[in-house]
Write a structure and sequence with these properties.
Elements: E1 3-6, E2 13-16, E3 58-60, E4 69-73, E5 87-90, E6 93-96, E7 101-106, H1 120-138, E8 145-152, E9 164-170, H2 175-191, H3 195-206, E10 210-213, E11 217-221, E12 231-235, H4 247-267, E13 273-278, E14 293-298, H5 305-310, E15 313-315, H6 319-327, H7 331-340
Parallel strand pairs: 2-15
Antiparallel strand pairs: 1-2, 3-4, 4-7, 5-6, 7-9, 8-9, 8-13, 10-11, 11-12, 12-14, 13-14
Helix pairs in contact: 1-4
The structure holds zinc ion (ZN) (2 copies).
The site of one zinc ion has 6 residues, from loops.
Length: 341
């Protein structure tokens, strides 16, 4: 029997369509494997082509030698650093000149690199760049919200093969983020606790939707997950802003994120995916009612007419079976087997 489930945090309903349900392994992508080369002389992100990108914002290591991670402004930025964030109100119309920051984080010099297969220490370097840029931009009074995200593969919206993530800092808070923060505040006012901390506690007790648990993070499938294998990673310590992550937590998040991505990579044959860090807007840093998280969304299904018309998603894999499947993808064993081939 299909089931309607409500996302407690957003109040959105999803249809868990068990009649159309597919076994998790049937969701694996079946296309030719990507086989990029380690170096592409035409790629603007490959080593040696640094002069093609706009002037660098930061790099790791910072000493100017060979780099592990670089951050550069996006050459085709959605928002401009040079615009003025002045609000114009005319009758019913509101506008702001397109001010904002749009950076690219080049995750590795290796054109063929894949986060899922990288050493944890290298993933941690990318996360350190996220934190540094995130905190710098939150200090800019013109910035209201910073979104960190990664698009992997054509179905996830990327055309550039070289592994990279992006950051967009905007002078406004989107309606969706504002709604979610308000919902979280309403819950805090009513129950006196963070709704995400409460959810994490309940999920740890029930265990059936947990994918992995570390000292500092928990990865799980949401009870009302809108899409198959969409996996959320939450810090176990209450933290509203990603910018408050500690050095030890970055190391742990690198391992957790890399393992979740590797489970998807090996279990579903390198699906296209997006991930994004949802963090409190800069004016709400440190609040007790919001809790940041990282959301990984494999692009295994397409948004169709029903979703567009109703705003309601149909998920054909139950969150419980998705969690069970991912728990049982033994990443270290898969890596060892791949190395033998
Ligand atoms: Zn490249
Ligand atoms: Zn919390």
């Amino acid at each position: 029997m299909p089931e309607l489930r409500q996302n407690f945090a957003t109040k959105e309903w999803v249809i868990i369509a068990t009649e159309r349900a597919k076994r998790p392994e049937e969701m694996a992508t079946h296309r030719a494997p990507r086989n990029p080369v380690s170096f592409n002389p035409k790629c603007p992100f490959c080593p040696g082509n640094e002069s093609i990108t706009p002037p660098e914002v930061m790099r790791i290591p910072a000493d100017g030698g060979a780099w592990n991670v670089r951050v550069v402004p996006n050459k085709f930025a959605a928002l401009s650093r040079d615009a003025q964030p002045k609000r114009v109100i005319h009758r019913q119309r509101r506008s702001i000149e397109g001010f904002g920051v749009h950076d690219v984080i080049i995750e590795t010099p290796d054109h063929a690199g894949v986060l899922a297969l990288m050493p944890d220490a290298e993933v941690a370097n990318t996360l350190r760049c996220y934190k540094s840029r995130y905190n710098d931009l939150c200090l800019d009074h013109r910035i209201a919200h910073v979104t960190l995200f990664k698009n992997h593969g054509a179905d996830a919206g990327t055309s550039l093969e070289h592994p990279h993530s992006q950051l967009i800092a905007s002078p406004v808070i989107s309606y969706q983020i504002r709604q979610r923060v308000h919902e979280a505040l309403r819950h805090y006012d009513e129950f006196g606790e963070c709704m995400f901390c409460q959810m994490i506690e309940e999920e740890l007790e029930e265990k059936q939707r947990i994918v992995m648990l570390t000292d500092h993070f928990v990865a799980l499938e949401l009870y009302a997950s809108p899409a198959p294998f969409s996996t959320h990673i939450y810090p176990r310590r209450h933290m509203a802003s990603f910018g408050d992550i500690s050095a030890a937590e970055i190391t742990d998040l690198a391992r957790t994120l890399r393992t979740v991505l590797a489970k998807l990579y090996h279990g579903l044959q390198d699906p296209d995916f997006n991930y994004t860090i949802r963090s409190a807007p800069s004016e709400w840093v440190g609040v007790k009612y919001f809790h940041w998280y990282l959301s990984v969304i494999p692009r295994l299904t397409r948004v169709a007419g029903f979703e567009l018309g109703s705003g309601m998603f149909i998920n054909t894999v139950t969150p419980e079976s998705a969690a069970d499947f991912l728990r049982n993808v033994k990443v270290e064993a898969a890596v060892a087997a791949a190395e033998k081939v």
